[in-house]
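Data availability excerpt. The first of two example chains:
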Amino acid sequence: MKHNSRRTGLAVSLLLGLGVTLALAVGLRQSNAAQITFTKDVAPILYKSCAECHRPGEIAPMSLMTYQQVRPWAKSIRERIVEGSMPPWSADPKVGHWANDPRLSAQEIETIVQWVSAGAPKGDDKDLPPAPKFTDGWTIGTPDAVVEMQSEYTVPADGTVPYLYFSMPTGFTEDKWVQALEIRPGNRSVVHHVIAYAQDGNVKDTAPGGEGDLRAGRVHLGGITPNKTGITFSPGTAKLIKKGSNIVFQMHYTTNGAATKDRTKIGFVFAKEPAKTEILTGNAINTRFAIPAGDGNFEVKASKTFEQDVLLTSFMPHMHVRGKAFRYTAVYPDGRSEVLLNVPKYDFNWQHSYIPKKAIALPKGTRLDCVAFFDNSEKNRYNPDPTKIVRWGDQTWEEMMIGWYTYTRAESPAKATASSGASSSGQ
């Protein structure tokens, strides 16, 4: 009995000690939380990671630039960052390292959680850092040139607007190396996305607003989806627009119940000197598929084999609302393969470009395999009609399968460099 009593006493002491330790830890966390304020701790995080979209006139539904704007949303902000839905990002964290990964660090998440738990105190105004500066709505700075639709387009109140094409002369009298570009919709409420191309100025639009001859000889420049703003290329690289070119917009308008007008424009920042390396755009694409009605995991493949050494500088998978997942895999000439990008939960509303921290070298003969998965079942809450077979088409109730990528030609023989951040296999 005495032995048991000693054991019981020891257990009680340990439990009491653990309780004191936990109490001290909780007290310390509460003490730390009480010291966290908006002006000193939270505003710098929001300015760095949220303000680009969460500011007046931009795509987010609310501005998060001031304490008065942020305070009503404090609990909602905490929920969204803890669940990982904000800032939006869809890449598998186990594959690749990305220069434009917007995710908050564990410390930043904990700071916001503690701040909200402490009642979201404002703090001292003198601790507030300067708000980030944006140039008249442009995220790329002041453009050197702006090209705009030649007239407004009236978007009807309802119904479906087919994809439209608008051609605008640049007036460039010499070749231009573009360091950055940005597409600015005139009315974001009706512009779902825009894709911009450069085209020889001698190609004429045979039907204003229609397709005409505007597919001929186009060079892909970039695009804007509901979440994408400007594009800035790495130093020494640029897109080339030939003198006398036109800019062609492929416009996807969505009606919102009220007739309205749009006049979209594109701004360019030019490189100060000719680029050493030209940024090119390619894709692996499959237009011949039929997604069965009700199929929740239909697979579609496309591939591209490189006939020269290249450096991949970005990826952008594209599907519509039945898109479920997307994967890029490099298959090297020696038969080895590795996953370069994996998007396990594709979201049509957040179509990202994924920019590797270091350009990925692929030697001549490497095959880039793209695999897309589609959910045409009733479990997909965005599915317009799970009873229909779905094929390729421009409209969102149809589907696309495109593995976009940008690349440069390697100046010296390329050796595979993705393995430091990608997933490898011997398949």
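And the second chain:
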Amino acid sequence: MLKANQAAPDFRSPNQDDQMVSLADFKGKQNVILYFYPKDDTPGCTIEANQFTALAKDFAAHDTTVIGVSKDDCDSHKAFIAKYGLNVQLLADTSGEVCNRYGVWQEKEKDGVKKMGIVRSTFLINKQGVLADAMYGVTADGHAQAMLDKVKQL
């Protein structure tokens, strides 16, 4: 598991528009909130994405880009964004490489059944590419505001 004050693992993955996005794109310019969520258009994931969208201008005012990551493909992300009018980039980590680098692909248990999946997690990466915070197993509701509060302290 990743911890604060270590270099953030680099990532490179296509966004909803099939354009490649990497951590290097933001280094020296923007803080990055990289949040991992299990699946497009599911209840918790929709709450989280909508709340990040509602605060998008506040994040932008603090030089911070919000990027969501799941294993859904670009078309799924496009549909999710269109359905809810989302204002965040969503990366399609269909290979699971970014999930593995950030340690969010873990065994989860639901109703006594164990299976692998994305643990809802968020990483705050400062402009130097260092993890200011690494949180695993976060709760969707209210998380965007909590992250904005952390960004304001950078």
